[in-house]
Prior knowledge:
The structure holds two protein chains of two kinds.
Chain A: H1 27-44, E1 65-76, E2 85-97, H2 100-107, E3 108-112, E4 116-122, E5 128-130, E6 137-139, E7 156-160, E8 169-180, E9 184-189, E10 196-205, E11 210-216, E12 223-225, E13 229-230, E14 236-237, E15 241-250, H3 261-264, E16 267-273, E17 285-286, H4 291-319, H5 327-348, H6 353-361, H7 369-382, E18 388-393, E19 410-415, E20 420-422, E21 442-447, E22 459-462, E23 472-481, E24 487-495, H8 497-507, H9 512-521, H10 527-540, H11 556-576, E25 581-590, E26 599-607, E27 611-614, E28 617-620, H12 634-638, E29 644-645, E30 650-659, E31 666-667, E32 674-677, E33 681-690, E34 693-702, E35 706-707, H13 712-727, E36 730-732
Parallel strand pairs in A: 1-10, 11-17, 23-30
Antiparallel strand pairs in A: 1-2, 2-8, 3-7, 4-5, 4-8, 6-7, 9-16, 10-15, 11-16, 12-15, 13-14, 18-19, 18-21, 19-20, 21-22, 23-24, 24-26, 25-26, 27-28, 28-36, 29-35, 30-34, 31-36, 32-33, 33-34
Chain B: E1 2-4, E2 34-47, E3 53-65, E4 72-79, E5 83-90, E6 93-94, E7 98-101, E8 109-110, E9 113-120, E10 126-134, E11 143-144, E12 150-161, E13 164-171, E14 179-184, E15 188-198, H1 210-213, E16 216-226, E17 229-232, H2 237-249, H3 259-266, H4 272-286, E18 288-289, E19 292-293, H5 304-310, E20 312-313, H6 315-328, E21 332-338, E22 357-364, E23 367-371, E24 391-396, E25 399-404, E26 413-423, E27 426-436, H7 437-449, H8 455-463, E28 470-474, E29 487-495, E30 499-501, E31 505-508, E32 529-530, E33 535-544, E34 549-553, E35 558-561, E36 565-574, E37 577-586, E38 590-591, H9 596-611, E39 614-618
Parallel strand pairs in B: 2-12, 8-19, 18-20, 26-33
Antiparallel strand pairs in B: 1-5, 2-3, 3-10, 4-9, 5-6, 5-10, 7-9, 11-16, 12-15, 13-16, 14-15, 16-17, 21-22, 21-24, 22-23, 24-25, 26-27, 27-29, 28-29, 30-31, 31-39, 32-38, 33-37, 34-39, 35-36, 36-37
Amino acid sequence: MKRIIGLILVIAFVFPQFAYAQKKKDRNRRKIEKKALEYYETVFGKRNKMFTLSEIPDEYKDESKVVLAQQVHLALLRNTTMNTNSTKVALRKRVYLNDEAAVNEFSEFFYQNSDVVGVTIIKPDGTKETVDLDEAVEVTSDVPKFYQDRFHSDDYYKIAIAGLEVGDIVDYYKVFNESYLRNIELLIPVASEAPIVEQEIIFDIDKLWTAYYNSFNGAAQMKLDPKGGFDMKGRQRKSVKRLRFTAKNTAAVNDERWSFDRLDAPLIKFMALPPGVNYGGDDKVSNNLDKKKMFDNALSFASLYVKTEKRDIGKRVKALNLVNEDIDYAAEIIYRMLRVNTLRKVDGDSETAEDFSYYLSRNSRELPGEIFAVLYAELLKSAEISSDIVMVMPKSGGDLSDVVLYSEPTFGVYIPSTKKYYWPVNSFSVPGKTPSYLQGANGFKVDYAKISKRKKNYAPCTVGMSTIDDNIYEVKMKAIVGDDNTLQVDVNMLLTGYYRNVYSSLFLYNTNHLKEEIKMTRANLSVREIKNEIKQAKKRKKKKKFDELEFNFNNSDWMEYNKNKKELFENWLESEYEVTEIGDKSVVENGMSGESNLLHIQFDFTSDSYVNKAGPNLVFDLGKLIGDQVELTEDEINERESDINFHVARSIVNTISVEIPEGKTARGLDQLNMNVVNEIGEFVSTVKQVDNIIQIKTIKKYKNNSFSTDQWSKMVEFLEAAFQFTEKKVILK
Amino acid sequence: MAIKMGHNKVLFSLVICLCFVFNGYSQVTNKDKIRIQSAEYELEFYLNDEDEVNAELRVFKKYVYSGIGEYGISESVFFDNTSEVKRIRKNGKKIKPIISDYQSRGIFHSDLKICYFEGSAYEEDIEISYTKVFEDIKHVDPFYFVDAYDVRNVKLTVFRPQWIDLNIVEWNFEDTLIEKIQKEEKDESIYTYTATNIELPEIENGKPSYSSVFPHLLFVVRSATIRNKVQPYMRDVGDLYKWYSGLVKEIGNDNTEIRSIVTDLLKGKSSDIEKIKSIYYWVQDNIRYVAFEYGIMGFQPESCQKVFKNKYGDCKGMANLTKEMLEIAGYDARLTWIGTNSLPYDYSIPSLYVDNHMICTVMLDGKPVFLDATEKFADMYHYASRIQGKQALIEDGDNYLIERVPVDVKANVEQTSQELQILDSKLVGSGRVELLGGRKVRLMTYLKSMPRNKREDYMVNYIGNGNKSVGVKLLEEIDLDNRDQSLELPYEIIIENQIIDLGSELYVNTETDNTFEGFEKIEDRAYPYNLREEVVLNNHTVLNIPTGYEVDYLPESVVIDNELCELKLSYKVDGDKINYIKEIGIKKKMIPVDYFEKWNGWMEQLKTFYSDQIIFKKL
């Protein structure tokens, strides 16, 4: 079943402030351990029934390991003396080792620096052996995923556990403290790679904290315990709110392709806000986060940042005098200025090549969404363009009502007069185009002019979806079979929408698109130069001319960056086709501007793998010319459990002509004519020979972006057809 | 400043190959823009205050950076509790290095540390100097002329006082331009080695061990005359053995707790072989290999009782436990030192760098049988290819024996036999795969290490060679309990997309493994290619000629047989069947440089053969 996001806790904005060395058994250390142990016994009790189970249920007898019991206790504490927002976590796990693989895994036991850690081995006859952790050694690499816990210290230790055998139980616990400067966000999968027989997660929330929570995808809802929880000193207090999650017999989960974790995996979302921050009204502990309040809070935070950020760029926008320009044009220029400004800032600060590469290769947002939105809306305002600020939940996260964590929604800008959305700038984003992950997202929008008003209208909105015709991966290929059976291949790739976005970072490793953008936004000129130039242009009524770029794209940093990107492109090409020698590659259209936003790439290569001798004739791996296709495993075909989710509907088109030697006839072409069409998608191919040209046309379509599990078999039909196509060979006689 | 550790050091396990001049820790991305203009080393032997022979290596390096922008240059020096690194300077100024633990996959814990320091190469040349002191001259590192960056000029000067008998072993010096000058002074001999333009090739595939290809020096102090008294060190392998056996005497074995398990294991066993196997296999199955390399434990085995209690140990601990258990059973068992084939030396060089592994030898009918309990699932007479042909230094009381581990290149075998017929444009039939020797050991070890419920899928994929067009169904459960037999698995198979039906003709290809097909051409390479193992891969497929058809064409046979490999592939008609025989044997795992062109040609021949087709013509 479903995919799980992390080990147990994924956290944002974590700033651990103190940790203790594990091995120094000085007095202070022993005191900490003693205290932590007392705390552990207080929160979990000395005799914990959950941790008495020693047998694995029959249904899990084939599993490698089984978590018999798991308990997590997270206390959000109030520490008035230290003026910090601290948390205390106690965790215990009891794992049954059911085969040699599990024994191997636990024979080298890893753990993190904590106040106290204890490991006990329970033999099948009930004998208990405590592992002496004094022999543990520090480790900085190769920590197995199962042991990784991003919630606290990065200092790991490992110990070789003596005499571990199949049938043994490893029962371990730890207690640790952390302090945080900002909000704590947890995404807790309640299922893991091993089945969990019984588990409990407890949050004790002291009264100055505010907490929001919810359960998703079949995970049981957390319940408030009327008895309350423990305070700083381990005393039970009603004023400390206690949330409790319990579950029994949670099956193991597997990764599945095309699934969105947040829509499929049973999980708990939990966000805690330190004293002074509240999004949700009067309830200090609530499963109903006030999204509007969260929106306001995010924007007021962003406004602080934008005040300084807009100084320089604001002057440049003003100097460009965009007030009387067409709104689309002005909005585009300002949007592009935001991208170039980021680059300019990096360049101006003499950062390293890695920073350039990082910036350019990232396909994710550079500025946090809320900062982008406020800054962009503010700049639009200076060009007298009215806009709304938008907050939506990306489709992969569900609905806006599913938002629990501050980091979940995305912010953008909507210009009502043109009805266009603008989303956070990244290396390859296009102004006025919605990236596929936000298409179909719902949320609300607020008029920026009224943003600071107490009473404002949060108008619901849904971002439009693209159609299958907007997201096309088209390959036009011309190939010639040479006398020595070498295939000379010329390819034109034309990518739109989703595919343009996905492949831009792979193909646009030259800097021409940036140069264009720099010219367009006059980023190479000072504010004074821009003003002068516009003045001159008005006088002469001529088309504007610009100086040579000041950005140095020929330095070694860029060369290094381009070299690395070129290698990535070549690796991709070799994974897609049977390549012997790579020829030239050029960008015909970069897809970053214009109406169609078409990314058009040309490249060529030769191959000696497609055509080979077959007795007196030739055997031609013709099917492989359509490139690599999805190869489903038997397990994938037969055991789909979660719904199928893509971001958008899309299609892949191949138009191929192969010139074969005069006088040769391709035999066996019929097997390549396929026609699998259903309501989910299709794979249709036509292959024929006209004179000495083999003509191939294939179309693969994913007709929608979301399908239910019971439609999986339909999807398998056309995916398998496409794969089978690639396996077909013909004979040239 | 000095960084100092306690006493003695480590180098005894399956994996380790480090030396002080080799910067294996570069973090620089544009390495090709950094060059070492000059690297000068001075190695000097001297007496310390306690009349012990010490050595120190003084290092002076000048880095030149030809790129633009700021980049770090890293220089790392390894040290442990027998050595220290001091007087670290950058451009003449003292600098504080970063000290971190050496961590490596396969080694649970090592006391080897890395002293790491960086230079910033922005518009200036960097000069780095430091001194490494060896407090135990057995541990003076080998000297390699290659470095982490290309080096323009390398110069090593060795100062040998007359009171020291030093053997400088030159390794891989053939066909190099390394110059050596020896100068005799009154109190010392001075050896100067110089080399220019030394490049470290970036080898990705088929990487041979550094010691087997790169020129380097080993320093073996035979003896020293101190205050007119000759102090022997490593005059020959006898001295080496003496030091090793001294450590063995101090293990402190107490086999009291082990006796009962040995008694249990021997119950019902009558022959020597049965008894030895029961003990050897028990250690394989019950003691996990965990490598430790710290302090003297890098050389001295853990006591048998500790390994028995812990149920884990390194190669030495496992060998020692095996020996003790066999002795309890009444056998003549001995600890044995050996260098795996990543080390090119033998015991004519009495150095700690000659071996890196320990096994147990049991003398049976006066002949040695080598038992390496780290080789899970190895049967009694199977020797891992990594020790085949290598000298073994075997305990013999105050004396020692040197025996060579037998070579059996045909012990590492995978053979497949299958019978196929054509049905609905598919090849359908059954077969059997059999693995022996190292091939079996590796696969069984891997299968055992994976969750039980994943093993069948893995084997199905293994037999089908990961090819989605090959459907495999296992007919028996995988038996991982009997290592005395080959690992055999019968299966049913359906192969799609290997037949092109043209009506009057059928084009058929029975080859689905395409062994070596993905092997890339070996080009622009100055070092041998390491294929990792000698192996025999055989396939015999019988294809029934479909009714109503006759054979029109069979691919031309390939027959290549030489000292490196045997590649024989052929199709032959035998009545109403076609026999497809594929015999691939790698006789030597290292492809020498002068064979590259031939090897590439042979791979081309294989590729052509694999893609060719059987043609059946309709009657």
